[in-house]
Design brief:
mainly alpha, 18 helices, 2 domains, 64% helix
Length: 472
């Protein structure tokens, strides 16, 4: 089901989401996470090195005479210490974040420096604001556009597609992560674009057995996603490659050749990612997984809180933590309640309509990638992603989650009132997260809002089941 999307409709979504991004971006770093990323950008362009020792985000005292602060003025600790998201290698500090996104931001910063004379050290406020718009802000806009395109292609009515778009743009954690520099929003945009491509791929394969441009673009996006997160990115490649091979082999009859094109398109960025890791730390794996680099004198990290190995005291503690990631005080599903409907409804649709569900492979991919990310972080972490709104690692999973949600609303349109009830609670939670920003401890009144939302959803479910024409 493909709906024609008018240019004026796309322009409307573009302008509204861009306005939200421009209003949301902050002119200062809000924590260690974005401070570490910004330090790399500044150091690359202004000092020609990946080492961040001289950055104002590592040593904020270097910017005290500028009249603007590199960090949130309400966080004096940050102004005293700078970012702690760093590793020490041979006596020099480096960011512990993936480097490829920083290279892309550095290219934009270099252009701004040439054109407008902007320098981070003299105007940290303008530097941070510009980098936030260029990275998280534009990623937010792209993700909103992609979700709207999916909605118009999957749902029969434009009003329902707009409702889902509004829910995503203003009722999910995508909104708050547009406020500061981070790679989670960027990976969300990549994932949303890939979901559009995956949905269009079967039809393109029917039209032409060799959609080289589409597959090369999907490979490039997957390679970029691989470089944005040390766990979520590689799992994306592992999950999507079999789907590409399956679709190309079953429909296009040229599975291996098209799969090779996809993988070769992803390869350059993947190689660059690992080459940078090796250049910095002499290892192809993430530098923050090397204990001697991460546990420097004064580091807040140690063997009890560094992500990677099993950190739980027993299997039941581990299971409880896994459930907490979804349903606890930072639970990802409870912070965007529509994903509860997507999860339960998606499984039900797949079971009931499995013989007549052409999108079954894409839905399986969505659940597999999301489930793998959840299990990996449930195994290898114990701090619920630190001080941040909900689970920041899971933000990219909004894209496959909303894809499944759209499929649920397509095959079960009677669930639309339930979607509206859950979306209303999600918008209230999202507004609170946006107000306080992504580096917050917990939404004020969180359990009350969640309780009211779930109660309202339950009442809608009971009303639907009592109605004589309800679908069971």
């Amino acid at each position: 089901m493909i709906q024609n999307v008018s240019r004026s409709e796309l322009i409307l979504v573009l302008m509204v989401s861009l306005t939200v991004a421009l209003v949301s971006a902050r002119p200062y770093a809000g924590g260690w996470n974005d401070g570490s990323r910004l330090a790399v950008v500044e150091s690359l362009v202004d000092f020609g090195t990946l080492s961040i020792d001289r950055s104002i985000f590592v040593d904020p005292a270097r910017a005290k005479r500028t009249g603007a602060l590199p960090y949130d003025p309400r966080q004096p600790f940050l102004m005293e210490s700078g970012t702690f998201d760093k590793v020490m290698i041979e006596g020099r500090f480096y960011s512990d974040k993936p480097m490829v996104p920083a290279l892309l931001m550095a290219a934009c910063y270099q252009a701004l420096e040439w054109i407008a004379g902007l320098r981070a050290r003299s105007r940290p406020d303008l530097f941070v604001y510009a980098m936030t718009i260029i990275s998280s802000g534009l990623a937010y806009v792209a993700a909103v556009l992609c979700i709207h395109l999916l909605g118009r292609r999957i749902l029969s009515g434009s009003s329902r597609a707009f409702a889902v778009t509004i829910s995503f743009a203003l009722g999910s954690s995508a909104l708050t992560y547009a406020r500061q520099v981070n790679s989670h929003e960027g990976l969300l945009a990549v994932a949303a674009a890939l979901m559009v491509c995956l949905h269009c791929l079967p039809q393109r394969l029917l039209q032409t057995p060799s959609p080289r441009g589409l597959l090369a673009g999907m490979g490039l996006l997957t390679g970029l996603g691989y470089c944005m997160d040390f766990a979520v990115g590689p799992l994306l490649l592992i999950a999507i490659a079999p789907l590409i091979i399956y679709r190309c082999r079953v429909i296009g009859r040229r599975g291996l050749g098209m799969a090779a094109l996809f993988l070769l398109s992803a390869l350059p960025l993947i190689v660059l990612h690992h080459a940078l890791n090796y250049h910095i730390g002499g290892t192809f794996r993430p530098v923050n997984t090397v204990a001697e680099y991460l546990f420097w004198h004064g580091s807040p990290f140690n063997s009890s809180n560094a992500s990677g190995p099993w950190l739980h005291r027993g299997i039941w503690r581990g299971l409880g933590y896994a459930l907490e990631l979804l349903f606890g005080k930072k639970g990802f599903l409870l912070h965007q309640p529509v994903l509860i409907l997507a999860s339960l409804g998606g499984i039900a649709v797949m079971l009931r309509k499995r013989a007549l569900l052409p999108e079954m492979p894409e839905m399986l991919f969505s659940l597999a990638w999301s489930g793998a990310v959840w299990l990996v972080y449930a195994w290898g972490s114990n701090n619920a992603s630190g001080v941040c709104a909900t689970i920041r690692w899971f933000v990219p999973l909004l894209a496959p989650g909303y894809y499944v949600l759209l499929m649920v609303l397509r095959y079960r349109p009677d669930l639309y009132p339930e979607f509206l009830a859950l979306a209303a609670g999600g918008m209230l939670l999202s507004a609170m997260m946006w107000w306080y920003g992504p580096w917050m401890a917990m939404v004020p009144g969180y359990w009350f809002i969640v309780g009211v939302t779930l109660l309202g959803w339950s009442m809608v479910v009971l009303r639907r089941r009592r109605s004589p024409g309800s679908i069971r």
